[in-house]
């Protein structure tokens, strides 16, 4: 048993990328004495969990337990009258929730068995994350309908859907997931600095997605070359301008969090809105709004700064969230959005983004969104280790 994670790791490394799930099943049966396994992956809306192997269709009870595990990110176990046990484990890596691993055991496991099985689920998460670059199998399992060409491009651009660090927890969501066009988010953690961007590409469909892709990659190019936040905005603006001569633009907000201090640097280049939840109060972070990227040649941007206190939560939302007014009433951002954000205070960011999106859908009376929507949620815990001091 002591070599259980090592044995599974070796099996996963040696498996072809499109056979990671089968390799995991064989290895887990061998090292844990399991009678079977099921790997569930979350769909693009994070509204369901689906088995990678179509032949292993679990019942409604197993689905409910898998969802409980996915939401809580804690092991969940249930035994039947014969003593057999189903153990559900989060398949997550670096804070990104990929799915759930169900392990069927002949008897209820002890705490040590659960700990080792949890480690194995983490190994499966790493393998799936790596294999996803080499095969379409897991992407097919995640999608419940065909993506538009624009959405295909946008999902390929994403860095992930959540990430954790000792100082912060971050998550984002795009809607409508299967047809999103120009709205997008990006992030990167480097040298204890977290860079987050939220973009509102001009137009609709594939043209908007292509415009956003140019802006995202221009900002990445500057960032990966050591450029500051201002340099990232200016390179992206010039790149978009010289492609479209001012006829197309990308509204963007760029944030850089110093994970040692909680100091945030910002460039506000358009419409995405930054909201801070402190205690029970939701307030807008007032930033000087500058020109969207690409409107004019050689546009220059100014840096602004603000501080976060440990326990603060930031939401960054696109105009499709803030300005939604499906029935001619006041916009969603006037009051309803703040209520939905306050309702998330006991939820982690991975759940909070879904809550705000569901409330937005309810605001639309459950009809399709008229505009695309991005919600990004950042929890600032304080410098790494602050909570333990």
TrEMBL record:
Keyword Hydrolase included in the entry's annotation: yes
GO molecular function: phosphatase activity
UniProt keyword Transmembrane helix, yes or no: no
Keyword line: Hydrolase
Residues annotated as domain PPM-type phosphatase: 163-380
Stored InterPro entries: Bact_Sigma-Reg (IPR052016), GAF-like_dom_sf (IPR029016), PPM-type-like_dom_sf (IPR036457), PPM-type_phosphatase-like_dom (IPR001932)
Domain of life: Bacteria
Pfam family, one: SpoIIE
PANTHER family: STAGE II SPORULATION PROTEIN E (PTHR43156:SF2), STAGE II SPORULATION PROTEIN E-RELATED (PTHR43156)
Protein name: Phosphatase
Organism name: Micromonospora sonchi
Lineage: Bacteria, Bacillati, Actinomycetota, Actinomycetes, Micromonosporales
């Amino acid at each position: 048993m002591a070599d259980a994670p090592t044995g599974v790791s070796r099996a996963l490394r040696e498996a072809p990328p499109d056979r990671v799930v089968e390799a995991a099943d064989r290895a887990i049966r061998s090292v844990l004495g399991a009678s079977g396994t099921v790997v569930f992956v979350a769909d693009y809306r994070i509204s369901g969990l689906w088995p990678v192997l179509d032949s292993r269709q679990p019942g409604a009870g197993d689905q409910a337990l898998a969802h409980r595990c996915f939401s809580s990110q804690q092991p969940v176990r249930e035994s039947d009258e014969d003593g057999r046990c189903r153990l559900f484990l989060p398949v997550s890596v670096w804070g990104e929730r990929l799915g759930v691993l169900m392990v069927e055991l002949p008897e209820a496991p002890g705490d040590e068995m659960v700990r080792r099985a949890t480690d194995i689920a983490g190994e499966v998460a790493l393998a799936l994350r790596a294999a996803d670059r080499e095969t379409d199998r897991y992407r097919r399992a995640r999608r419940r309908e065909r993506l538009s060409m624009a959405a295909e491009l946008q999902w390929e651009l994403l860095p992930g859907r959540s990430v954790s660090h000792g100082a912060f927890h971050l998550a984002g969501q795009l809607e409508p997931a299967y047809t999103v066009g120009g709205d997008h988010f990006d992030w990167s953690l480097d040298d204890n600095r977290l860079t987050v961007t939220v973009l509102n590409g001009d137009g609709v469909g594939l043209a908007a997605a292509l415009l956003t892709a140019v802006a995202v990659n221009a900002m990445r190019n500057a960032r990966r070359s050591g450029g500051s936040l201002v340099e990232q905005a200016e390179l992206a603006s010039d790149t978009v301008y010289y492609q479209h001569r001012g006829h197309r633009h990308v509204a963007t907000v760029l944030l850089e969090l110093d994970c040692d201090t909680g100091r945030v640097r910002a460039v506000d280049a358009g419409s995405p809105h930054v909201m801070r939840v402190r205690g029970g109060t939701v307030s807008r972070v007032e930033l000087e709004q500058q020109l969207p990227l690409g409107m004019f040649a050689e546009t220059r941007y100014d840096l602004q700064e603000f501080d976060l206190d440990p326990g603060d939560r930031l939401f960054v939302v696109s105009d499709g969230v803030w300005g939604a007014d499906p029935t001619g009433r006041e916009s969603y951002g006037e009051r309803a959005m703040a209520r939905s954000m306050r309702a998330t205070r006991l939820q982690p960011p991975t759940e909070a983004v879904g809550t705000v999106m569901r409330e937005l859908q309810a605001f639309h009376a459950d009809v399709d969104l008229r505009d695309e929507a991005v919600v990004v949620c950042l929890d600032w815990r304080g410098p790494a280790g602050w909570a333990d001091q």
